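Today's session is about reading a structure prediction critically. Students often jump straight to the picture, but the first step is always the sequence itself: look for stretches that repeat, for charged clusters, for runs of hydrophobic residues. Only then move on to the predicted structure, which in these notes is written as discrete structure tokens rather than atom positions. Here is the chain we will use throughout the hour.
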Amino acid sequence: MRHSRGLILFVLMTALLAIASTTAATPPAKRPNIVFLLADDLGWTNLRCFGSDFYETPHLDRFAQSGMKFTNAYSACTVCSPTRASIMTGMYPARLHLTDFIAGQNRPFAKLQIPDWNKGLDLSYITIAEALRDAGYRTAQIGKWHLNHAGRNAAEYGPTAHGFDSEIDKPRGTKGYILPPGGNPDGESKSEYLTDYLTDKAVAFIDDAKDAPFFLYFAYHVPHTPIEGRADLVAEFTKKVRADAIHNNPIYAAMVASLDQSVGRVLERLDRHGIADNTLVIFTSDNGGLTQRYGKHDGFTENLPLRRGKGSAYEGGVRIPAIVRWPGVTAAGSVCDEPIMTTDYYPTLLEVTSVAGDATHNKSLDGKSITPLLRDPTSTLHRDLYWHYPHYHAGGDSPYSAIRSGPWKLIEFHENNGVELYNLTDDLGEQHDLAASMPDRVALLRDKLHAWREQMQAQMPTPNPNYDPARAAHVGRGTGD
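Below is the predicted structure for this chain, in token form.
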């Protein structure tokens, strides 16, 4: 009996040692790198793979063929700073009370007075960069930040104060997109165009960080105003202008081309170092393309078939291109029609990297992880999407809130408390307002919208005691974009 027990014990110990040896010999899965590429004011149809009939984006087109394209991707706001804050925090701009571009637009005689909103991202929020850095990721921010507190020391609220190990933006003295003479002496591109300069810095970071998990947040300035392309690309597209094309601005086309070339260089650098298969790459925009200012069409770009553009309550202001490639997960050339929003990237990156993040911050996340969609583009997230913009904008509408629920979109304009209702499946261009004919649907969606605003403690505009109809469109000092 003793001999049998000893034999059994010996066999068990041998098995346990074998398991332990196998476990020790199998290294843990390497955490994926993250590259987040954010265009500025790039409209939904401003890439060839999203329908442009003039702009050329071969690198982004190939990228889309290697990953997943989202046809119903949205920015959390119709202007940039709030959307950037939503990416950094995973929260709605309404919750953050950061609801306009910093420092906003002053309309002293408009019908409504805008609320006293947060003109910067407070340090109390745990950004996605902080969450990843605290879990061992190297973090870098390249390009436009636009979340500093207006009128305060930029260093106190800049990227390095929000979890980035390093930050690089345009060199001092840069005018628009043209660097000062000699502004890029060490860059591999030898170019003095801003997009090329920033790309030099981005690929240099990849070179340096390739052996450790890293998070690169590359926030482009293009194709935001001023509309200023690289000279050789402007000349090239000037020869290609077609009168029958919806997109026909050669300077804007040159800016989009420089963006595309930059993305190509970043993706090539991942391939060069053999890390592309362990890198999640996200490409998207902060809001729709700018199509008009002060009520006049500016000729920069078009978002057709969507209505209007940046600053607007309509789809052209918030529907944006989005492409995600997660090797081994996303099927090459796949397309997902499920609505997603920039608030979703925070929880997605936590899940992809297996980083827990901050428990207190995570309780207030408004986004949902899109990893189920990355694995199966036909799955659904079962939720509504919301917008709240209690401001005026030179390119768009008066203050509004909106909800998208399934195919339905309801917009509530605060100047007159009027509502508009659209079925986006049947009417993508929002040309047929159904509010008058569907009062029950309006009531349901309006109740949802109001309940959400209350939950967010959203700041509302109030009647302006200085309202002057004759001067309502007047823009005072303190504007910027």
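Discussion point for the tutorial: Residues 388-471 form a domain with the Arylsulfatase, C-terminal domain fold (CATH 3.30.1120.10).
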